[in-house]
Design a protein that fits this description.
With about 240 residues, this protein is of the alpha/beta class. It has seven helices and eight strands. About 35% of the residues lie in helices and about 15% in strands. InterPro entries: GlcNAc_PI_deacetylase-related, LmbE-like_dom_sf.
Length: about 240
């Protein structure tokens, strides 16, 4: 397997677009913490509020709790601006409404870098990905181009934005690049631990943040100089 290249850092602002609370925290948050420590401006957009993500909790109770936990999780990696859309957790559909919502956020925030989750059918190692991740990741990629075309979604009343340089998908099985998170690894663990109610409802390896994230970071680091690292599939716009 080929070595990974370093993610370019010639940008100053980014928008993270993911489906659920906790999505970026399973691997990508270490990069976010590194970049906010460099002074980069990073904001989050979540397609849903995670209302159907805890089997033992009614959606009406779960949604505000998961929103609160996501805000705390973002604060742990230096992010203070977090927006939530109201697409339905578990049944998010790829299509024009989702693309429109993401394109609107790109036009509002005007990032140079868009970061999303894995939108491939599987995870590294072969585990099956879920439909929400695939829909939101693919819509985020398409919305970058939508946001730069004045004739697409003119009803938004927002000036087009053509300034996105890169799109990166975290934890893709087709990863091409990586980020050294040695100095920001502890922040990534704290960010995932902020999802307390969600973690308490889990079982297995994913319920214990430090060893789970460390094993991921070490595995990526085997292709990136032996450091703790997190991987991305990088698309140049």
């Amino acid at each position: 397997m080929a070595d990974l290249e370093a993610v370019p850092e010639d940008w100053s602002s980014a928008l993270v677009v993911v489906a659920h609370p906790d999505d970026m925290e399973y691997g990508g948050a270490g990069a976010i913490a590194r970049w906010t420590a460099q002074g980069k401006n990073i904001r989050y957009l979540l397609a849903c509020r995670g209302e159907n993500g805890i089997d033992t909790m009614e959606p009406a109770v779960c949604a505000p709790l998961r929103v609160e936990e996501q805000i705390a999780s973002c604060a742990a990696v230096g992010v203070t601006e977090v927006e939530f859309l109201d697409h339905p957790d578990g049944t998010i559909e790829y299509g024009l409404p989702l693309r429109r919502d993401i394109a609107a956020a790109i036009r509002r925030h005007r990032p140079e870098f868009v970061i999303t989750g894995n939108y491939r059918e599987t995870w590294p190692g072969g585990g099956l990905n879920m439909a929400d991740h695939i829909a939101v990741g693919r819509a985020a990629v398409d919305a970058v181009r939508d946001a730069g075309n004045r004739w697409i979604f003119p009803e938004l009343g927002l000036e087009k934005w053509e300034g996105v340089k890169y799109v990166a998908a975290a934890s893709s099985p087709l990863a091409t690049h990586a980020v050294d998170i040695t100095d920001s690894f502890d922040a990534s663990v704290a960010s995932l631990r902020a999802h307390k109610a969600y973690l308490e409802a889990l079982s297995g390896d994913m319920a214990d943040p430090e060893p789970f994230l460390r094993s991921m970071a070490e595995a990526v680091g085997e292709r990136f100089g032996g450091v703790l690292a997190t991987s991305f599939e990088l698309l140049s716009v």
